[in-house]
Design a protein that fits this description.
The protein is α+β, with helices and mostly antiparallel strands. The chain contains 5 helices and 13 strands.
Length: 254
């Protein structure tokens, strides 16, 4: 590999890591699990695709009140947000035929249910902004992109054990290694961080809890941190197209 190829590979890796966004705490502090914002927003877009008359644009998930966040029960992964209530800020274009308040309420409900019931995020607020009014119904969403880009082989006893947990689609290596272990003074393992993708139809928080129970369920077991970097979608699901445009450029809160 030439120096130019190595540089290009490093640049691509950095861009992909940035595309994951922040690592959002799943559940509460005791759950010791995080979900990549990029994976969460992809699921939100899939949920929004089912709300007729809307085209979801920008989506951001952040702490609703940073001062209300607390320390996690385990060592957090690099770039992780502390556990605490979350807020979704989203922009969308609205189609004709339905009052904006009713349309926004349907979209708000879909996003909230996806985040809380579908993913396990502690979302307390969903703030929507209308960015365009469309003359006709939004176009069908574009197909979802390919999955499994960062799939890693389940090496070692820990990797194989995690891969066998129901709901784990595959291990991933976005942060560097799928399984990262920190040695204890006695020669054992003090801490373990595992990174994975969840299978379609499995709630990421439940899968993360099952992984932690598998690895930390015995006396003297290591502290376990779980990072969910991707959420697999059913084959028939699609991802909405961003950047929809309409006849009116006015904006407003709903």
């Amino acid at each position: 590999m030439t120096s130019g190829q190595r540089s290009g590979a490093r640049t691509a890796a950095v861009r992909h890591r940035l595309a994951l966004g922040r690592l959002l705490a799943l559940g509460d502090a005791a759950d010791g699990a995080w979900l990549a914002e990029g994976a969460a927003t992809a699921e939100l877009r899939r949920a929004a695709a089912g709300v007729a008359g809307t085209a979801l644009d920008a989506v951001r998930i952040a702490l609703a009140d940073p001062e209300a966040a607390g320390p996690p029960a385990v060592v957090p992964p690099p770039g992780a947000q502390p556990p605490g209530p979350l807020r979704i800020d989203a922009e969308f274009a609205a189609g004709p035929g339905e009052p904006l308040p009713a349309l926004a309420e349907r979209l708000r409900g879909a996003l909230f249910r996806c985040a809380v019931d579908g993913l396990g995020l502690r979302v307390t607020d969903v703030d929507l902004r209308v960015t365009a009014l469309l003359d006709s119904a939004p176009r069908p969403p574009a197909p979802a992109g390919p999955a499994g880009r960062d799939a890693a082989e389940p090496e070692g006893a820990t990797g194989r054990s995690v891969a066998a947990v129901p709901g784990v689609a595959y291990l991933t290596r976005t942060l560097g290694r799928a399984v990262y272990e920190t040695a204890a003074p006695d020669g054992g393992v003090a801490r373990v961080r595992v990174e994975l993708a969840t299978a379609a139809g499995h709630r990421p928080l439940d899968v993360a809890r099952a992984v932690r129970a598998r690895l930390a369920g015995s006396p003297g077991a290591p502290s376990v941190t779980v990072v969910v970097s991707a959420v697999e979608a059913p084959a028939e699901h699609t991802t909405p197209r961003a950047g929809s445009t309409g006849r009116t450029g006015s904006t407003g809160r709903s």
